[in-house]
Design goal:
By secondary structure, the chain is α/β, with parallel strands linked by helices. The chain has a domain of about 140 residues: HUPs (Rossmann fold, 3-Layer(aba) Sandwich). The strands form 4 sheets. The chain has a 5-stranded parallel sheet with strand order 3-2-1-9-10. A 3-stranded antiparallel sheet has the order 4-5-8. A two-stranded antiparallel sheet has the order 6-7. The chain binds glutamic acid. Glutamic acid (GLU) binds next to loops. InterPro entries: aa-tRNA-synth_I_CS (IPR001412), Glu-Q_tRNA(Asp)_Synthase (IPR022380), Glu/Gln-tRNA-synth (IPR000924), Glu/Gln-tRNA-synth_Ib_cat-dom (IPR020058), GluQ/Sye (IPR049940), Rossmann-like_a/b/a_fold (IPR014729). Its EC number is 6.1.1.-. Belongs to the class-I aminoacyl-tRNA synthetase family. GluQ subfamily.
Length: about 290
């Protein structure tokens, strides 16, 4: 059976914007008859903390959200990412990249290449050149993308076409990259509906292209509006009183409900009251 999901990174407490995204992800999944999964995206070992994983799951439960077990952790799924990478490499769809961030930032690009995109420097190195460079630094592994653009379907925004980059799949330090993990996990977990913050809209075409390259079915997306503070900046955990450390679940529901124009104070009431496909795409300005 198909599934939707909420995939937080356990690097802090969930703020009101994250909680609203979680509630909407639950609602999209349940309103379309899907399972709802929670995945802990703890690939970044420096920033992830088990205590935040616990508090995030507790906070979701405190809002009355339920999910289908098990909760999986990316830190325990390295074998899956390695297997996917090996498949791409066997198909000739990866290459070693020796560029530093600086070199990529400073590179000369084709006239229409998006800023920051990979300039292709290491795509066509000879084996002799690669052998020489390997003595300087361990390479990252990148996807050899064979399309420039890819189109995804966003349930709120329609068809979105965006740039497909030669994504990093494994970093020079050997860690599998976030883009690979997300795509492999969604595929392996049967996720075919990705609901998440609008900050990840630009990442969707390349992720969907990677999924296609791995032979995974296409997902639909719903990139929901971000929460902003009174200054118009993205809500952050440091903004005052925006997490369940300072708000009761009922206060959080009343703020989130008001932002969605509903009175619901529970997931079930929301399911009866709100059509998630009709939510406003304006950012939510949190002023309190
Ligand atoms: N783990 C990501 C975050 O917390 C979300 C990734 C996704 O939903 O695809 O921002």
């Amino acid at each position: 059976m198909s599934a939707g999901r909420f995939a937080p990174s356990p690097s802090g407490d969930l703020h009101l914007g994250n909680l609203r995204t979680a509630i909407l992800a639950w609602l999209f999944a349940r309103a379309s008859g899907r399972r709802f999964l929670v995945r802990v995206e703890d690939l970044d070992r420096q920033r992830s903390r088990p205590e935040f994983e616990r508090s995030q799951l507790d906070d979701l439960a405190a809002l009355g959200l339920t999910w289908d077990p098990p909760v999986v952790r990316q830190s325990e799924r390295d074998d899956l990412y390695a297997a996917a990478l090996a498949r791409l490499t066997a198909a000739g769809l990866t290459f070693e990249c020796f560029c530093t961030r600086r070199e990529i930032a400073d590179a000369v690009r084709a006239p229409h290449a998006p800023p920051g995109s990979y300039p292709g420097t290491c795509r066509d190195l000879t084996e002799t050149q690669r052998a020489a460079k390997r003595t300087e630094r361990p390479p990252a592994i990148r996807l050899r993308a064979e399309a420039d653009e890819w189109t995804v379907r966003d349930e709120l925004r329609g068809e979105i076409t965006g740039h497909v980059d030669d994504l990093v799949l494994r970093r020079g330090d050997g860690a599998h990259a976030y883009n690979l993990a997300v795509v492999v996990d969604d595929g392996e977990q049967g996720v075919d509906q990705v609901v998440r913050g609008a900050d990840l809209l630009d990442a969707a075409p390349a992720q969907a292209y990677l999924a296609h390259t791995l032979g995974l079915p296409a997902s639909t997306y719903a990139h929901v509006p971000l929460a902003l503070n009174a200054e118009g900046r993205r809500l952050a955990k440091r903004d005052r009183a925006v997490t369940l450390r300072d708000l009761t679940p009922d206060e959080a529901w009343s703020l989130i409900g008001a932002s969605l124009g509903v009175r619901a104070r529970s997931p079930e009431a929301l399911l009866a009251e709100l059509d998630p496909w009709k939510i406003s795409l304006d950012p939510w300005i949190v002023t309190r």
